[in-house]
Amino acid sequence: MSLDVTLQTDPEIYGNTATEEARRQVEICNACRYCEGYCAVFPAITQQKVFTDGDLTQLANLCHNCRGCYYACQYTDPHDFAVNLPKALAETRAESWERHAWPGGLARVFNRHGVALAAALIVGVAVMFWAITALPGEGEGFYAYISHGVMVAIFAPAFLLPLAAIVISLRRYWREVGGTRVTLSDLHGAFRSAATMRNLSGGQGQGCNFEEGDRYSNRRRWLHQAVMYGFLLCFASTSSGTLMHYLLGLEAPYAWYSLPKLLGVPGGVLLVIGGAGLAWLKTKADPELGAPALWGGEMAFVLLLVFVGATGLLLYAATGTGAVGWLLAVHLGSVLAFFLLTPYSKMIHGFYRMAALTRDAQLKSGPQA
């Protein structure tokens, strides 16, 4: 197969930004099409001849960085084309998150100094909660240390404000990629892909090449599923406790066989196992096939997930002991840090991924009336 080297590498045609480099490489892929069956990105590429910035933003967020295309490509370095599509799309993806983040600039700060920022926020908030535990509580269990009213006053804005920031960011993204009115069919296709992590199964259905180079592995897919379902179980646990408190008048603490505990404990276990596994895989993977400058921020996000799950499990295990007070402060500090950083950490990738999958389902279904 022969491609025009001059056209594909001319610096006067292609600039040096992440988006322009992604455009150069995507056009090469569109001419080659060897990887057409690898994931959702390549069929989407073949639907276009000219790629706008919005098209590239959509492709970047549709990419799961499984890296199979890199190891299958005949145009990687030392070829003159120097194709490294996983890296080009990873950097374009991060660039889009920073561009759409609200308020602007915070995503860039976290991506560059994620570990230090997350650690400082956890410590600062934990100290605040530890100071609050010195005040008299007004109930049993955790409420003997921090009253229900204080928890609501702190966590309600800490949840709602980041949620508003996420909504604004997604609205900006949807407008940029040309999204239209969403149908139930679009959502069904997107959620089905997300629930099974189908795009992490590789071109042959044997897994991806994230940590094994040119060998397939399903570990990253399984660990991603553990994190996703662990987070959803923890969220369901908190939601069920809220409903029990306000609708049924059943106040914490709850027994081990109650819905909040039956959902929260396995959720925490899955978070710890999945997050720790993903952190380990990141140490084995080639950073040059992602966005090397963002490695610290990505690792900070994964470790924060592990810390939230681990401190929650330790707090449950310490029930009735003298360690509850300080463990409660540390756990609540990590949870609050997680909420506040969600719009600017890699946690936002889950929201953008769902938006990208939804937009992809729209494009596959054809133009809407």
TrEMBL record:
The keyword Transmembrane applies. This is 4Fe-4S ferredoxin. The chain crosses the membrane at residues 115-136, 142-168, 226-248, 254-281, 293-317, 323-344. Keywords: Membrane, Plasmid, Transmembrane, Transmembrane helix. It comes from Pacificitalea manganoxidans. It comes from the Bacteria. InterPro entries: Citrate_utilization_prot_B, NarG-like_sf.
